Q: What sequence folds into this?
């Protein structure tokens, strides 16, 4: 199994009729739980039989069966997301009941299946792990150090002090060590390159 993780580039929509029930799936990229619920609230249909959902962020997930038997809707949707190594995605499946019961297995296949088919349409973007870095550089070295901030490095915040600049950076993990050594070398040891402590 691939260790790479991905997110979807844009909103996707898929519909399928299964034994007279209409399943409508909406999937979208999200970056917080709040964005997920905003997305669900935008597309939920009050006249539908069920509005089931799932979302997955890098460090959390949630799902809801909305009245379907426990474990037959939201969890299979989440499994479809995880099966494609996706994060930062929300999926909503709206069901209009068509008069024929699908049974537990049928429901799981339906909800998981329409979610997977919806996600199959999406363009995937690889999510590269990053680290937060604090970088301090004297005024005399700002230009040369900043010239090394190429692809894979984002300046989140820039603050000037009496001695120079303090950057808060987001750096791809595979660049952290080499770039840190480069900063120290370019500043002749005067620069600071550190990973901030995470407060518990």
A:
């Amino acid at each position: 199994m691939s260790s790479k993780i991905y997110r979807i580039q844009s909103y996707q929509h898929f519909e399928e009729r299964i034994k007279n029930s209409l399943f409508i799936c909406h999937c979208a990229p999200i970056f917080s739980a709040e964005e997920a619920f905003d997305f669900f609230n935008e597309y939920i249909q009050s006249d539908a039989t069920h509005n089931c959902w799932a979302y997955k962020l890098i460090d959390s997930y949630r799902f809801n069966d909305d009245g379907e038997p426990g474990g037959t809707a939201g969890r299979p949707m989440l499994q479809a997301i995880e099966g494609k190594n996706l994060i930062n995605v929300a999926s909503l499946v709206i069901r209009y009941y068509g008069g024929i019961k699908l049974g537990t297995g049928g429901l799981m296949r339906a909800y998981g299946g329409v979610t997977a088919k919806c996600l199959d349409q999406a363009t995937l973007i690889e999510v590269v792990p990053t680290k937060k870095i604090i970088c301090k550089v004297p005024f005399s070295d700002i230009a040369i150090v900043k010239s090394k901030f190429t692809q894979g490095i984002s300046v989140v915040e820039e603050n000037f002090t009496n001695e120079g600049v303090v950057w808060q950076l987001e750096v791809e993990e595979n660049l952290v060590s080499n770039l840190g050594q480069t900063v120290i070398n370019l500043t002749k040891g005067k620069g600071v390159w550190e990973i901030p402590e995470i407060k518990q």
User: Anything to note?
Assistant: Residues 45 and 51 are 7 Å apart (CA to CA). The chain has a mean pLDDT of 92. The longest helix spans residues 103-120. Helices lie at 33-43, 74-83, 103-120, 142-146, 176-186.
